[in-house]
Amino acid sequence: MDRGIYFDEDNRVRILDVDKYAASQTLQDNCQKFTSNMQQLQDCISKYLSAIDQQVDRIEKEKLKAVGLRNRVAAMHEVGSSATLPLSGMQLCSSPCSCSLQHKAPVA
Q: CA dist 1 to 4, 16, 33, 78, 89, Å?
């Protein structure tokens, strides 16, 4: 490695060769741009993940609503079918009596 004192175009004293100094400045600028781009990427990813989390929350709420509605419909169906089972073999009293009971139909 060649050591020495160099002067740049502005007559400033440099330890590095002018070409090596320019290359190191270019490298430093590129590193700063890269770091800035990585920060922007991290911000974009953070926003994207936040939006995804909000969508997940909405989907979970809608899924719970759908499960609740499905259970409600199933319960209504069970209540409806269990209410008709005891009545299936019975008829209302056809005689003009004052009772409100249900009687079995006469077997012929």
A: 10, 11, 30, 90, 108
